[in-house]
Design a protein that fits this description.
14% of the residues lie in helices and 31% in strands. The protein has helices at residues 9-24, 46-55, and strands at 28-29, 57-58, 66-67, 73-76, 79-81, 84-85, 100-103, 106-108, 113-116, 119-122, 126-127, 132-133, 136-139, 142-143, 145-147, 152-153, 157-160, 163-164, 172-174, 179-180. The radius of gyration is 16 Å and the shape is globular. The termini are far apart.
Length: 181
């Protein structure tokens, strides 16, 4: 049997919950979407989250049409695989990306890293370099590197109870020349 490259049925169900909660302005609690094999919560891919925050909600019945997230995007208890890449994002209407609130999530970047100033640096869990965001809140999350360099956050920046992805690993934030209004 060939393996599908698309989202699993559990991930599709998690996506539907995230979309429903985003429309209603509620926190999408993904704790009930645990993978029986690993025990980790199944979550939408980092690219799905990026598209919602930057491009907005898909309009039902209108191909490729999107509308702004009225309340931002709030997700709880998710294991998000891959970098949430918000580099240079400003939202589809030029007014900044929607608010992003992640609570009790694991932000697991790809393996490896890039060379920077002669040293290997891991890929970031969240990359918001040069991005324009309305609000960013990470509460009780497990992360590696958060890169907020040159970002403009037009509301609150809340980084509460962050921890490293694994014991002994770094949990660090780069926010050089960022502006928080």
């Amino acid at each position: 049997m060939a393996k599908s490259n698309g989202p699993s049925p559990r991930e599709l169900a998690a996506r539907r919950l995230v979309l429903r909660c985003a429309r209603l302005g509620e926190m999408a609690d993904l704790s009930k979407f645990k993978d029986p094999a690993s025990g980790a919560c199944v979550a939408p891919a980092a690219t799905f989250i990026r598209d919602l925050v930057c491009l907005g909600l898909p309009v039902v019945g209108a191909r490729a049409a999107r509308t702004r997230l009225p309340f931002g995007l709030s997700i709880k208890a998710a294991r998000i695989e891959g970098t949430i890449d918000l580099r240079e994002a400003m939202g589809f209407d030029g007014q900044g990306c929607a608010a992003l609130v992640l609570e009790d999530c694991q932000l697991v970047p790809e393996e490896g890293g890039t060379l920077r100033d002669g040293f290997e640096e891991p890929f970031p869990s969240l990359d918001a370099r040069h991005a324009q965001l309305r609000r960013l809140a990470l509460r009780g999350c497990l992360v590696g590197l958060l890169d907020l360099s040159d970002a403009e956050i037009c509301g609150d920046l809340e980084l509460e109870g962050l921890s490293a992805l694994a014991p002994g690993e770094p949990c660090w934030i780069r926010a050089r020349d960022s502006v928080i209004q």
